Every structure is written in structure tokens, then in C-alpha cells.
Amino acid sequence: MSIAAGLRSDNYINHETTVRSWLVTTDHKRIAILYLCSITAFFFIGGAAAALMRYNLLSPRGALVSPEMYNRLFTMHGIVMVWFFLVPAAPAVLGNFVLPLMLGARDLAFPRINLLSWYLFIAGGAIAMFAVTYGGLDTGWTFYTPLSTNFSKGFVEVAALGIILSGYASIATGLNFIVTIHRLRAPGLTWYRMPIFVWSMYATSVLNVLATPVLTMALILIAMERIFHIGVFDPALGGDPVLFQHLFWFYSHPAVYIMILPGFGIVSEIIPCFARRPLFGYKFVAWSSIAIAVIGFFVWAHHMFVAGVSVYSALVFSLLSYVIAVPSAIKVFNWLGTMHKGYIRYNTPMLYALGFVGLFTIGGLSGLFTAALGADVYLHDTYFVVAHFHFIMVGGMVTAFFAGLHFWWPKMTGRLYPESWGRVAALLLFGGFILTFLPQFVLGYLGMPRRYPIYDPGFQVLNVLSSAGATILAGGYLLPMGYLLWSLVYGQPAGDNPWDATGLEWRTQSPPRVQNFSVTPRVTETAYNYPPPEQQEPMA
Amino acid sequence: MSAATRHREDLPGPETEFQYPSEREQHDTSMTGMWLFLATETLFFGGLFLIWLYYRYLFPAGFALATEHTEFAIGTVNSALLITSSVTYACGVAAIRVGDRKLLFRLAVATIALGVVFMLLKGVEWYLDIDAGMVPGPGFALRGPGSQGAALFWIFYYLATLLHAIHLLIGLGLVTWIALRARNGTVTRESHASVEIVGLYWSFVDMVWLVLYPMIYLAGRAG
Amino acid sequence: MNFDLPVASPGAAETDQLLGALLLISLAVLVLVFGLMALYGIRYRARSTAHRGAPGEKSWRFEIAWTTVTIVAFFALDVWGADVYMRQSQTPAHAMKIYIIGKQWMWKAEHEGGQREINALHVPTGRDVQLIMTSEDVIHDFSVPAFRVKRDVLPGRYETLWFHPNRAGTYPLYCDQFCGTGHSEMVGDIVVLKPVEFSAWLSANGEIGGTLADQGHTLFMRYGCSGCHETTEGGGGGTVRAPPLIGLYGSLVPLADRTVVTADDKYIRDSILMPASQIVASYPNLMPSYAGQISEENLVKVIAYIKSMAGETPR
Questions:
Q1: Rounded to two decimals, what is the model's pTM?
Q2: N or C: which end of chain C has fewer CB within 10 A?
Q3: ipTM for the complex?
């Protein structure tokens, strides 16, 4: 990479340095950084709400805030974490940064739409933050009617507008990714040579483009219902409140896969790299992402088994929910297969990735409980469900996001972070997470309902355990903030390929130059072509 | 691709952005983008139509009652106008494909004129509807059995026609932009992706209306 | 620490078996996944000199194998879960009926004998109990962990839930669907009594305004329903011809649009609130809507009265 070395002084960060150059940039790498800063802010806002909730739950009567305030806190936590952190995190930050690099492209297909996406996101975020802080919102992130339409006094319409805008930001990113993957692959980069991360981004984007507009329509109807009392969801005017749940979950169940599919992709990059082995069952892993995206559109009513859907639709949706669990299970087995006969190095990204596999497996298995109709009738809307989706969303996706961030950080910044601190943070996250959410499974089995600021004193011990775990977990999230920022100034220069990884993103300089590659790369081999063990010496 | 088969479109042109290897690549990519955008739009309107049909199924009598009070004549004329406008625009696209900018300009202006007449008629129709008391709420003119379903019909009517009108206004802006580009010569036979993309959008807006037309004016009126 | 979760119905035991099976399978998979991760992680760590050999060929055999095993296991679990659910969904005949009305933020219960309770529900052991539930405002959820059942309580609909208490005791009742500020205080007690004690409780708390059907009869007169509808007393029927209500409940009703519906609670409720939506064949569409004029509690009483005219005797 002698050409890249000569250009190292000129990269996307120092090419222009004015604030304006950042705010009007159309460079996918800079937009990724803009997104990274924004979602980090939202992550800590949502996290602060969670911390207050966990603190409040130390006492069965509420240790800190009134029930009204508690309701606002979990609404804020849900809205901020789902729409302003989890949905955009992996695609808009990691995807934006590495997807064009992985494809050997000089940028996304529509760079200006990419920038528009960030502005939509920021505008939506500002509006939603105004709604949840100034106005207060106490509907939960699910906006169930008729509570949200006829009874809530919060700023529901305002929050809806914010979420609609952020939805269009996701649509813009998703559209951009799909088109880019179809049209801007480097010569020789056939579909089966693409990294799995690209496949998972493709699946994620399809969901974003096709599911989000339905949520937009549902939110428009909610706002209309509140402003004009149109009666679409109001039983007193002939409307059907359950219809909203169908529309909402038609988006929000695919949204769960929007959140977790990128995690599958990230981990599929990291495990082969640190096990020095090709990914086991590449085609199965790739197509299982697509399968999840397709079946993901047909499982929404499993959120509604006790909400008055017919027995027959419950049977169908339960079966489909089991069907969609199969591709996820396939992935887990393939990751394990990749480790077999490898030369495994335990760098920070690998620790996070293995943590992901473990936590995601627990989360996925708990999904088997809620997909079983007879069991869901009992577990629905209890802490069991809270634990289940946090294992997937936080234990799974947030851990995967950290894995990806640590994996590509040297590429993004050109610096290495202190490895030992990284490992400590990964272990803290794993331990803290388990302690926070494992007790919640038991709480759910004992019957503790969700969204209860005041609860049966019998549940206190487990709640205190969970809150204690949350403290450790918070440490696990704050620590990387510290050393990653530190590394920006004091970190060792990373070099072009610190992990000795395959993939086109490692074939350019770190940080990459403005148009990514000085010469468009040509691809001649499959992804993850790590040398077979015989040709490799054990790492010292 | 061998050098022998290369056309001018296979090389970067003056308007080719740096991420594309050629003008043709940029053209095809932007078409792909527009198709995807229309996919997301389809799901957007699809959600609304689905709810609409669901309530029609729940309240057949009310919806039939409301349909009888719609302005059938205006709706039919408007449908004809929009279909014609799609024809004029499609001819414009054909014109620029053979490099006839003047013809594209004229046809774009015709398209705009048809769209504007549609909007004016739509305005008249809304005025007549409101004037007839077709506004759900305390002063709703349809009373007695079925009024509940009829009220829901009118809600969907206003929401759908408003969303369609907004899309049409955006479309008018885009066609105006194309007309200007045709006049000042920014589009050529070789480089006219914008003309094709706007054409896709305009046809989509037309298609939405062709779904709306039977849902508003026809279903329940027969018999 | 109180980890005690009572099993107070046969259905609860059934759910626990299902949950136990799910837990066993999950633990087995966890041991497998974490075990393999640890095994490979140690055996194939970079510094280890363990023999690796050539990379395996024919990986698709493994893929087919674990995909098949997963599908079969999942299908078995799905069928088991569905089986339990089917029994939860089908109320046995002759279940004792109790009406539940949820509102922000309390539970109201009305027994057929006219006994009323708030945030409490007394039921006897050894009988099937069916709850017929509706809401006055938002969506609530009636959840009783001791019976392992719950069901959303929706405004404008009657949702049902049944259980068969077999262990006396007092068990918590929760609202499980978020319903606003006081959601976590919308709780109560399910008091399961031995049959003898339950009868004693019923007699001690009943007979203030008569049975539910008696109260419904009073309302039936007050709302002027008897002006048009013929009833058991032979009176009514007046000048206007309206469908007779004797023997209506549970019968098949032919409608003007040539469909046939069963006259259940929901049908009667809809006919009172939205009479025009289901016109009985060969009758004119004359009845005014009572939407907004009759409360959920009174609706329940009128329905109980109409039921009583079909030989459904309150107990």
C-alpha cells in the first residue's frame, strides 16, 4: 500500500477543517461521523432515562419519581433508544462508513440524499426531544390507542412528527444502500464475494424502505385522531383500536430486525478475522439474513396474542415466529463452526463479538418462550418480555455495535485504542448486562408486569439486583467513551490494516482519503479468504 | 465491456458525479433509486388503502351512503385529465430520447396545464363537499343509520385526496423544473435521466389516483 | 425473598409444564453454545499448538443437519404451545359468568346475582369461571399470575377469559397493559373460596338491587325498551313492531343483509349501541342508538336481563 502511505497526510478528516465543511459534507465517512456524534448523544440521553428508572425501582413504592414521571421516563427511553439510537446506529454510522469501502466504491450512490438523511434525523431528533422533555409523553413508545389518542395529554403529535422525520432519514439511508450495493460494486465483486456485513445491510435496508412508510401512515392517523377526532381508532366513533396495533407492529416488528440484522453482519466480519478462518457456511449466513427480512414482514401479530386477535391468526403467527427463529439459529451455529480449528485471538472486537453470540443466544431462546402461544399468554407484558427484548436489542445489538466500533475505529480515526482497557470494558458490559437482565426473566415468570413504578414488595430483591447490574453496565458503556476519545489524541497510529483482515476497507489508508481509493480495487477472491491453518504460524 | 462497443454514455460526462464510472451508470442508478422510492411510496399509500378497505368491510352501508354524495362528474373528468397528462409527459420522454428538446418543452407545459386544471377542479370539489356538509363532526349532513361509516369514509376521502394533492403539487414543481431544463438546454439526448425520473414519479401519482378513483366514486354506487 | 408463585388452577400447571420444557431445551442449547464457545476458544486459541488439520469440506452437511434439527424442535414446541392456547381459548360449557369492567384505574366486577366488587374478585374452587370483560376507556389487561392467564380488555368489545380455580387463597390481579398514570395501581385480589364459603359470601353481599337480571329489567323499563320490544311479562310490544327478545340469547338471527349471526353478548351490545349496523331480517330500521346514553355497567345488566329471557338463569 505504498500509494496510500504517500497520501496519508491527506485524508477525509483533515482534507478540509472548517465547521462548515463538515455541515455541508457529502462524504459518506464524514456523514458517518456526524451520525456517530448524534447517536452517542441520544444513547446517553436514553441511558440516563433508563438509569433513573432503575434507581426508582430500588423501592417498591418508587425511590425517586412520581408514577407520572416514571411513565414519561420509560416513554422517553423507548422512543430515544429505538428510533434515535438502535435503528440508525449500525446502518447510519458503521454502514455509512464501511459499506462504500467494502464495495470498493468512492461514495454512496446519492451522497446528497445521504446528507439530507442526517439533517432529517437531527430535525426529527430535536422535535422528538422537545416532545418528550418539554411536553412530556406518557404513552409508552408503542402509542397504543385509544390511550394515545383520546386520553394522553402529552405531546403525541409532536413526537409523531419527530419519529416520521427520523423514519424518512432511515428510508433515505436504506434506499441509498440498496442502490449502492446493486450498482457500485467494484469490478469482480460478485454477490457471493461480498462481505456478510453488506448482505445484512441490504436486508436491513429493504426492511427500512418497505416497513417505515406504514408507520408514517399510522402516526399521521394518530395525529389526525388527536387533532380532528376522526374516529379511525376510537371505538366510540366506530373505529377499531386494535387496528393501530396491527399497523404499528407491521413496522415495529420488522424494525426489530432492522436493529438486529446489522449486528449479525458485524459479528460475521469479526469472528472470521480473529479466528483466522473463512466464515463457515457463507451462503447460509448470507441467505438467512434475506430470509429474516422477508419472513420479518409476516410475524407482527405475535405481539398481539392476548389482544383480541382470532385463534386462527394466533396459530399462524406463532408458527411463523418459530420459522423466523430458524435462520437466527443457523447463524449462531455457523459462527461456532467458524471458530472450529481456528487460531483465535482475543482482541477487544472479538470479546465483544463473542459476548454478542452468548447474549443473543439467550435472547433468542427466550423468544421461543414468547412465541409458544400457551406460554405467551402468561409471559406477555411481564418483565420476561422486557428481559427478552433487551437481551436482543442491548445484549445483542448494542454489544455488536460496540464490537463494530472497536473493529473499525482504527480505520475511522487512524488510531489504536488501549487494548487492555477495551477488554476490561467488554467484560464489564457482559457481566453488567447479565446481572441487569437475567433477574428480569425471573421477575417476569413471577408475574411482575411491565411499566410498573409501584410494585409488589415480593419483587424487590430481584429489582435491586437488576439495578445493581445496571450500574456496572453503565460503567461498561462509559469506559469506551473515555478511552476512545483519549485515543483520538494519544492513540498509537493504527496503520492500514491493524487486524490483518481481509475486505476492501482494509486496502485503503487509515483514515481513508476523500474518495476512498486512489485506484478502484479489483476483487479476485471470496470474502474472508484467511489463509488455512497450515500456512499460518501460531501468533506469538 | 470491450472498447469497441463503447458509446459516449459509457464515459464520464460533464454531469457525471465522481462515484460513477460513466454517464450511463449514473442514469441507470438514479432510475433504480426512483423505483425504490416509489416502492416506499406504495407502502405508504398501501397502508392507507388497507385501512380504508378494512372499514369499508366493517361499514358497507355507511360507505355506500357516502359514495352517493361524492362529486362523480368532477372525479371522472379529473381521472381523464390525469391519464392524459401522463400521456403527454410520456410523449415528452420519447421526444427527448430522440433529442427533440422543443417538443419536450411543449409537452411538459401541456402536462403542467392538465395538472393545474386537475388541482383547480379538486379545489372546486372540496368546496362543494364542504358546502354540502360532508364534514364529519357536529354539522355532518349525513344522519341516521350508516352515518358512522359515512363519517369514516369522508375522513379517508379528505386524507387521501389531500396526500395525493400534495404529491401532485410536488410533481408539478418537478415537471416545471424539467420544462425549464428543456428550454435552457440542460437536458440532451445523451443526458436526460432527470426527465425519465420525473416521468416515473408523475406516472406514480397518476397510478395512485387510478386506485383512489374507484374507491371514492365507484364502489358501492353501482346497483 | 418471596419466589413463591402459586399454582391455583389445572391450566396453570399445564402452562408450567410447557415453560419447564422450554427451559430445559433452552438450557441444553445454552450449554451447547457456551460449551462449544469455551471449548473452541481454549483449544484453538492462537497460541495453542492443537492439531488443526485441513479445513473441513462439505460444510453443507452440517448446515442441513442443524437446520433440520432446529426446525423439528421448533415445530414440536409450537404445536405444544398452540395446544395449551386452544384450551385456554375455549371456554367450557356452563361456566359461571362474571362481568368485568376496567376503567382508569380500577377493576369492577359484577356477579350474576347482582353482587359487585371493586379491585377484587371472589370465585369458588371447583368450578369453571368465565370472565366477560370490557373497558370504559383505554385498553387494559386482566392478568392473574396464579392461573397463568391474561387477556386484553378492550373498549367497545367483550373479551372473555376462563379458569378453573382449584386452590383456595388470595392471589394478585394486575393490569398488564399500560393504561396511563395509575397503571401500576390498577391491581387487586383474586379471592378463591371453598364452595361453601363462596355461597356464604354471595348471600352476604347480594340482593341490594336484586340479581343482575333484575337490575337489567328495571333499566329495560327506564330506557323505554319495553315500548317496542316484547318481553316475558307479555307486556310491551306497543305500537311499533320490534324483534322479540324472548329466547333471543344464543339463537341464530337472520339479518337483512342475508347473513346469519349468533345472538351473543357482543351482538346484543352492538344492537343497543349501533342498531343500524345489524338489522334483523323483515324488520324496519327504526331503533335509535343508545351510544353515549348507557354506561358499560348498565349495558351488562340489560344484557343479563335479555339473557335471562332465554332461560339463562342467574345463579
A1: 0.91
A2: N
A3: 0.91
